[in-house]
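Hi,

Apologies if this is the wrong queue. I'm a grad student, and the batch job for Putative GH family 25 lysozyme from Lachnellula suecica produced an output file that my downstream script rejects. I'm not sure whether the problem is my script or the file. Here is the sequence I used:
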Amino acid sequence: MRFSNLIISLAAGIAVLSAHSLVQKRATTTCSTPSGPGFCSSTSTACTGGTYVSGYCPGAASVQCCVATCTAPAGKGVCEPTSNSCSGTYTSGLCPGPSDVECCAGTGGGSGTGSGVAGLDISGTPPSSFWSCAASTYKVVAIEGYIQGCAQGGEVKSNFVANYKAAKAAGISRIDAYLFPCTGTQPNGVACKSPATQLSEFLNAVDSNGMTISHYWFDIEPTSTANGDACNAWNLGSTANAALAKQWVAALQNSGRTWGIYANGNQWTTMFASRSTDIGSQLPLWAVQADGVTGVNTVSTFMGGWTSAVAKQYKLDTTACGTGVDLDSFLT
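Support response: The file is valid. Your script probably expects a header line. Output copied below for reference.
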C-alpha cells in the first residue's frame, strides 16, 4: 500500500513537472503592429527598449504587443520570437521578454533590419484629435503640400500650413511633405506652370512659414479626367513625359533639399516607354506596393532603374485615428 502510494505520488509529480515543462516550452505569441513586429506580453512586465501597443494580442487588455528595437553585432534590429523567420541573424540576451525572444538583425534581416518605422501620408484636413492619436502610433507623417491645381496650372495645397502646424504641435518628430505637380494638358486649356515656378511656390510656402521638413517627395502618378480625376497628368506621350520628368528631377536636385520619388511600378508603362525607363533613379524611392504588408524590405516591385526603396506605401485609402489616410513604412 505504501509502495503503491509512492508510485502514485511519483506519477503525479512527473505529470506536474511535465505540464510545467510544456508551459515553459510554449512559443511566445508574435504580433504585428503599424510600428513593426513584436511579441505579446503582460504590461506588468517591462518592454525595455520599446513600447507596448494595444489591440494586437489575444487575451486580456493588459496583454499587449511589445515592439522593441535592439542592437546586435550584425547591426540594428527588432525583438521578435524566434518562431518568426529572420533572414538576418538572431542574437540572444539583447531583448526583453521570454528567452525565445531574440534580436533579429543583419543585412536584409527579415521583419527586423530594413523594415523601417510606421508612418502615414495624408491629404485631407483632419480634426485636432487625429494628430494626438497619430503621434502616439506613427513616427513619420507625410503631408501633401502642392497639388496639380489644373485651374491654375499648379498650386500650394490650401491646408498645407495648417496640417504642418498641427503635426508639429502634436509632437510628431519627422514631418515629410510631397509635391503632386501639374504635368499634363488640361481640358480647360490652362497650361501647367513650369517646373521651376511650381517648385518655387512650394518651397516658398515651406520657408515663409518656418517649416522644418525632413524629407521632400515628388509624386509621379498618372491621372485622367476621362477616369473621373480632377486633372490630367503625364498625358504628353512617353518621350515628352520622360523629358519633363528628367527636367523636374534636375530642378529637385538643384533645390538644396533632400528629395525622393514617390511612384508605383505598375503605373510606369502608362507614362513612359518601358518599365526600365530611368528618369531619376539617383533619388531614393518611396514605392507604392499596396499589398497590406508592412516593411520597406518587403518591396518587390521595382522599375526605372531602382533596385531598392527607402519607403513603402502598403495600404491605400484606409482609416487611422478616425481619418482617411494611406499607411506607410519609412526607413529613418
